[in-house]
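Hey L., structure's done. Input below.
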Amino acid sequence: MELDHNRCLYESILVFCLALVHLNLTIAGFLSSTWHINTAGQFAVSCIAVAFLVVVLDFLRLLSKQYEEHLQRQFQRYVAAQTTSDRMQFFCGDSLEHGPTVLTFRASPLQQLARALLHTLQFGLAYIIMLIAMYYNGYMIISIFLGAFLGKVFCDRGEYRVVVARPGART
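Output:
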């Protein structure tokens, strides 16, 4: 009984692995019935296009992150330009004089619409990429990985901010 169970498990894993690395060049319609790949050239263009889609997804993520940071900087400039009495409209608490103050900012309806649009584009593109990956074509999966690598290289700058004490300042 144990042997049959293990054999069935191994066969299932083998079938999955073979499907994962299926390297067939003629695939009928990835996302639509009109997308047919009949030649090696069409297949190469399709692989490049899939990798490019993943790079575009990473670019949209970068764009969304930068827009969020822009909104935060815009609010910080706005608050810095206000007087203490004007800042009270953003304040929740007992007093502005005791300790750090946390001010709350909400995006305007137009800003929220832009944020939602960026999110929807990211979500839709990620879903399309997932559908392409579900064809279990090894070359397409490799193209997705390559696109993720290139997207990280070109679209993620890895900027980090570290706050350090000034020389001679008391800690």
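The two ends are 70 Å apart (CA to CA). Helices lie at 2-20, 40-80, 84-87, 109-133, 138-155.

-- N.
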